[in-house]
Write a structure and sequence with these properties.
The complex is a heterodimer of chains A (about 270) and B (about 70).
Chain A lengths: L9 E3 L2 E3 L3 E3 L7 H11 L3 E8 L11 H4 L6 E4 L7 H14 L5 E4 L12 H13 L3 E6 L3 H9 L4 E4 L13 H10 L5 E3 L5 H10 L3 E4 L1 H4 L4 H21 L24
Parallel strand pairs in A: 3-10, 4-5, 6-7, 7-8, 9-10
Antiparallel strand pairs in A: 1-2
Helix pairs in contact in A: 1-9, 3-4, 5-6, 7-9
Chain B lengths: L1 E8 L2 E7 L3 H7 L8 E4 L2 E3 L14 E9 L2
Parallel strand pairs in B: 1-5
Antiparallel strand pairs in B: 1-2, 3-4, 3-5
């Protein structure tokens, strides 16, 4: 696409990605829909969860990683469902074994099942253990600028504050906090959770976020494949607008776009 | 052939013939060739060790795969 700023890539842990949209793989009707939506999103990094295999399941049953091969996508294993640092670390060690030593991971340690809000003391503790163990940690976090900076100091390669609750589709509740995090944190800042529709993603990017991670907004749209495409356009548009630099807001001062002279009615 | 071993596999008790390596367990479960990871009593069992390591009575085994998630 000619309009997209050349060479503008998202760099996470030293690797450059063309797409700033990261997508989850949950909640789709089937693997075919998953594959088509992810293709339409243009995402290069896709999240997966780690779960017990169903013992006795049909061995010919398709596997998610057959549909989304690690040779084509950067697989980002998550720790969804973990409520302690210990469980999160254990899950990601299994993920690393499963993915042949792959170090890039999404850490999320939840605080409560109702809100799925992150437990930040546990998240920070897990981040320190994982970084010491050689992981490259992208951390889901609250939109607290101090905690985001502490995650950066702990060695996280990206911080991922929530826009609003996971799966809520409520958009960006607190753009002001996000702005502070973007201004103060040097590693990439990605909005993770709460995006509902394309404008939410565009706003995140216009604020200066380095990327957006979403799952439900695409998977639970009436037409997930089409919404995936909309999100791709929104992330690109928001990024372009951020790089272009928006005009100043002038709440009490109109400014005509057309010449104020040469009007045919002005005869006097 | 020694006495069968009792293990806990993905949270469920299970009795298996012994001796049994991890490679044989994976075969037994019809999971050979699938992308998975195995943990024994909280410690990773690397795939490279599947043929050499044998299960022991009382082992708590987890076999995990990647599934859809956000």
């Amino acid at each position: 696409m000619a309009a997209k700023t050349a060479g503008d890539s998202l760099v996470v842990a030293g690797t450059a990605y063309r797409s700033r949209l990261l997508v989850g793989t949950g909640k789709y009707r089937d693997f075919d829909e998953t594959r088509r939506a992810i293709e339409a999103s243009g995402a290069e990094i896709v999240t997966v969860a780690i779960r017990r295999t169903n013992i006795g399941q049909n061995a010919s049953e398709p596997n998610l990683l057959d549909v989304l091969p690690p040779s084509k996508y950067t697989i980002l294993p998550n720790t969804a469902g973990c409520y302690t640092a210990q469980d999160a670390v254990r899950t990601l060690r299994l993920a690393r074994e499963l993915l042949d030593g792959h170090a890039l991971v999404k850490l999320e340690v939840l605080g409560d099942a109702q809100s799925l809000y992150p437990n930040m003391p546990e998240t920070l503790a897990a981040a320190k253990t994982l970084v010491a163990d050689g992981f490259q940690v992208m951390a889901y976090c609250s939109d607290d600028p101090i905690l985001a900076r502490q995650l950066e100091e702990a060695g996280c390669v990206a911080v991922m504050p929530l826009a609003s609750l996971i799966g809520s589709g409520m958009g960006i509740i607190n753009p002001w906090n996000l702005q502070i995090i973007i201004d103060r944190v040097k590693v990439p800042v990605l909005v993770d959770a709460g995006i509902g529709t394309a404008s939410d993603a565009a706003i995140a990017m216009e604020l200066g976020c380095d990327g957006v991670l979403m799952n439900t907004a695409i998977a639970k749209a009436k037409d997930p494949v089409r919404m995936a495409h909309a999100m791709k356009l929104a992330v690109d548009a928001g990024r372009e607008a951020f790089l272009a630099g928006r005009m100043a807001k002038k709440p009490y001062e109109a400014s005509a776009s057309s010449p104020e002279s040469g009007l045919i009615q002005k005869t006097a | 052939m020694s006495a069968p071993i009792r293990i806990v596999l993905n949270g469920a008790p299970r009795e298996l013939p012994a001796p049994l390596t991890f490679a044989e367990l994976i075969d037994e479960l019809a999971l050979a060739g699938r992308r998975l990871a195995v943990e024994r009593n909280g410690e990773i069992v690397p795939r490279s060790r599947f043929g050499a390591e044998a299960l022991v009575d009382g082992d708590r085994i987890e076999v995990v795969i990647a599934v859809g998630g956000g």
